[in-house]
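Appendix B. Chain record.
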Amino acid sequence: MGGSIRVVHWGLGAMGAGMVRLVQARPGLASHGAIDADPAKTGRDLAEVALLERPLGIRVENEPGAGLGGGDICLIATSSFVEGVYPQIETALEAGLDVVCIAEEMAYPWASNRNLAGEIDTLAKNKGCTVLGTGINPGFILDTLIIALTGVCGRVRRIRAARINDLSPFGPTVMRTQGVGTSPEDFRRGLEDGVIVGHIGFPESMHLIARSLGWQLDRIEQEREPIVSKTRRETAYVKVEPGMVAGCRHTARGYLKDREVISLEHPQQVLPEIEGVQTGDYIWIEGEPDITLTIKPEIPGGQGTIAIAVNMIPAVLDARPGLLTMADLPVPRALIGG
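Structure tokens predicted for this chain:
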């Protein structure tokens, strides 16, 4: 492999398969192994699963043993939650691999599961490995980018931000957590049962911002409402009829005592343009000076998540051991090479 960084892919859904394709296009990176629990994918050539034209000679395994051996870093794209990815992170670390994980809660896992975050940090340090959680959001738009913008402020009084995006590129896991394709009644029941969670990552983003600015949030309040479609919408992963839920309007507010200092909004749905909704990313910082950033249309969620996970590989390999966040690493940048 000529000194290439050997990448193991764990999870070959929409995001994981996209990472395979991007790794093939990046100089200095090479796919080394692949793991997926789906029986329809195991045993096949990784190129076939990732929709590449030429075989890679890498067999997709359903157990980590053969897939992890000899790798340098593992890209994990299997779940949104710390508990869901913890066994995989643990296995990769035990095999001596660094880890980049796109589970939303891993962007700042202390917010949702302090005990498991501590265990990951300890194991990573003991093994001399690094673990990073990242993605388009959380991981960049509503936290890392905001943190970077505050670097030109003498004071920051309040932060507001919104990401209005299209869920269409994402796979079944994200659709389930957003309640896409359910009835409004099932959406409400899903919220109560914890099956539907809306955007996963507001506490993670807020605590990451707050920690970076030296704030200690006293509380976070969240609201979730269904976005009910008036039209028929269909993606590769879901069908939404009129009257069904096309997405979730999720907002969160973070407070220092009784003062709201962070307000984040993330209404996400499939194919919003069908009903005239324009996507975009917006950041407003009230401080010295005030800052307003507008990105239209949105930075594509699927492409952004795939790119940032792959682009952070060199930084993770060069980082100190332990469980780190995007605020602990250098400014992200594209691996263009050549």
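Further analysis of this model is presented in Appendix C.
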